[in-house]
Write a structure and sequence with these properties.
Layout: H1 2-20, E1 74-80, E2 88-91, E3 96-100, E4 107-114, E5 117-122, E6 125-135, E7 138-143, E8 150-156
Antiparallel strand pairs: 1-2, 1-8, 2-3, 3-4, 4-5, 5-6, 6-7, 7-8
Length: 167
């Protein structure tokens, strides 16, 4: 009888051992987040899809813009994301920037145009500024101020005399 219990015990141990050695179930294959449909491009050159195409429009290349196109003129704000309409900007030939509005005294700053890049300097703070469009009737800029960039549409100021640099 003892042999019979030993045989049962041995069979139970063998069964448990085999059950413990059973391979783990295969992990589920990841399902794609969305189904991708592609066109037959076998006749087109290979193109990488690893990097998305940038969507933001690049600013106009300032290197092709001559400062003479905006210097020595008084420009008036027609529209802006942060500057009061009617405010005037005068870019003097000596690098002085004069910003004036009906609600205050003129602000005297500086401007620089170096290597095709415009920088406005107001109260000692430099702001890189993109020239988005410049022609005889429109001067559109984007100033990279702290926080959000400020876009401003300037138009020639009618009947405004060019201010003088601060003495």
């Amino acid at each position: 009888m003892r042999t019979q219990y030993s045989a049962y015990a041995l069979a139970a141990v063998a069964a448990l051992t085999l059950a413990a050695c059973k391979p783990a179930p295969a992990p589920e294959a990841p399902t794609p987040a969305e189904t991708q449909t592609t066109a037959d491009t076998s006749t087109q050159p290979a193109m990488s899809t690893d990097t998305p195409t940038p969507v933001a429009a690049a600013p106009a290349p300032s290197a092709t813009i001559a400062p003479e196109a905006f210097v020595g003129k008084v420009w008036q704000v027609k529209d802006s994301s942060a500057v009061e309409a009617g405010t005037t900007y005068a870019f003097l030939a000596d690098g002085t920037l004069v910003v004036d509005s009906d609600s205050g005294t003129p602000l005297y700053g500086q401007w620089k145009f170096d290597a095709g890049k415009l920088t406005l300097i107001e109260e000692g703070q430099s702001y890189p500024t993109d020239i988005l469009k410049l022609d005889a009737g429109e001067f559109r800029i984007r100033s990279h101020n702290p926080g959000e960039p400020v876009e401003t549409l300037l138009v020639p100021a009618a009947d405004q005399t060019l201010p003088k640099a601060k003495p």
